[in-house]
Amino acid sequence: MTMSDTKKTPVAIVGGGPVGLALALFLDRYDVPSVVFNTDTETRWHPKGSTQNARTMEHYRRLGIASELRLLGLPADYPGDVAYFTRFNSYELARLKMPSAAQKAHMVATAGKLDQYPEPLLRANQMYVEAFLLDYVRGRPNITLRFGWEVKSYMQHKDGVSLLAESIADGRSESWRAQYLVGCDGGRSFVRRQLGIRYEGEDTLQQAYFGGRMFASHIRAPTFYRDILGNRRAFQHWAVNPQSRTTMIALDGQEEFLFWMRPNDSSVAPDGDAVQHAMTLSCGADVPVEVIGTQPWTAGIALVAETFADNRVLLAGDAAHLFTPTGGFGMNTGIDDAANLSWKLAAMVQGWGGPNLLESYEAERLPIAVRNTGAARELAKNIGDVSVSPDMEDDSEAGAKARREIGAYLSTFGEEFSSIGVQLGARYDGSIIIEGDAPPPADDFAHYTPSAVPGGRAPHAWLGLGRGEGDSLFDKLGLGFTLLRLGTNAPDPTAFANAAQSLGVPLTTLDIPDNDIRDLYERDLVLIRPDQHVAWRGNTADDADAVMKTVVGND
């Protein structure tokens, strides 16, 4: 194969799951072409996580697809509750009340000016979202898809990365040359292994449930609601009794579910009869079940790659970190990786990124991966701490007492299913491209404190009376950096405009003569990065040249 046969692209992405597709879409938004390689010809039709968290939905809003994604998954009026039962046809132990999609939409429509949640968490399974993303990507002119292709090898050079890909269907090969290669190819990442990068952390958790090897079955149970559950629907249904510990997660609100179980012999995948038996124990009665597919997973895992980059090859998503599913943090952390990495790759490709910019990717995202994997593992431990009394199903005073006690404990589990501090509270304090100026708020997994201290997510505000697309502060931010001029006495922004122009940095100036928003940000001028994190703030433009150099890695 000659050099003339080699195809060229600024960015090559290995792995076409949600993180790889999101990365390609962000790059497309910045007008940077990419190619995405994926061994499967389509997205995998097996359910995984069902949480598109608030930050992920904000990212999807920037991509212009949040409203369409909200049409996926559970019906708008389906309750978002998490319910615990002895068996699904018997005693309800506890219920964590959470709003439906329709109720969340009403909360947004009636929100105050400084409300921080323009895009509430969405319950839509990853398999639906992946399928949507792939279909959407197919219509984007800057994205080349190589689904059904495997990257067989790659090699780094001073000015790029060369790789060889092969069609799985017919063995055809293609040679590609990219400026950068990103491995978004999952926990068994070929890209990561070729670099010799290992995971560090905890690879299992031994406890009665939500520990060690578990199995996730995609099932169809068309009579479950009618014959077993009645009017006690929930997003998640947990069975807790001396015989059985299982979880059923609603997928379509009608008949399809994700069913988690841990068989006595976890070395062998359960067959259809074993899944049926587990369902019978959980339901307290026979219920027809069709098993569509079963896959293993490991509960309690908390692994983070020892490094996220090697020169022009970088890692994102599961290739960089592996989670237990408690909290729903895994895929969402990967989408946040893509949001962080994409603008930096765009800056390097377009020539305005400084020599230290890509270094900041690992410095900013690796600590967040450690934070989030640790949070998910702690939530998994809480589940394992549930004490199951042998008489909890008895129709007696002792049974009622046991149910009250376990119900009281289960009622404390709300943060597994919200954890807004994890969702919105990621901060990049100490980053070489952040101009910090004050102590940040304390990190709190359960609560989010809006703060304009540089390093964190820009606090949200609604800019008018509307609460729809185009009404949010986030909707007004530019593709590159955005300089906010806040309040009625903001200084002249010309120095920043000139500094950005001299460096080739895309900069939008946004005037917001609202003193409430100025008070929220605590400064007259605020510089927002392309990923909506605060890079700098101040009351004068005197240091504009130095600030602009720092925030693009030119210091």
What does this structure look like?
The protein has 555 residues and is of the alpha+beta class. Helices cover 30% and strands 24% of the residues. The chain contains 16 helices and 24 strands. The protein has helices at 18-29, 54-62, 66-69, 101-109, 126-137, 190-195, 224-229, 272-283, 330-350, 359-384, 397-410, 420-424, 473-476, 494-503, 515-521, 544-551, and strands spanning 7-14, 34-38, 51-52, 82-85, 92-96, 122-123, 143-147, 149-157, 160-167, 173-183, 199-202, 212-220, 236-240, 245-250, 256-261, 290-299, 302-305, 309-310, 313-315, 321-323, 481-486, 507-512, 525-528, 534-538. Strands 1, 2, 7, 8, 9, 10, 18 and 19 form an 8-stranded mixed sheet that branches. It has a 7-stranded mixed sheet with strand order 5-4-13-14-15-12-16. Strands 22-21-23-24 form a 4-stranded mixed sheet. Helix 9 (330-350) runs antiparallel to helix 10. The longest helix has 26 residues, at 359-384. The model has no long low-confidence stretch (mean pLDDT 94).
Q: What labels would you give this structure?
A:
555 residues; alpha+beta; 8-stranded mixed sheet; 7-stranded mixed sheet; 24 strands; 30% helix; 24% strand; globular
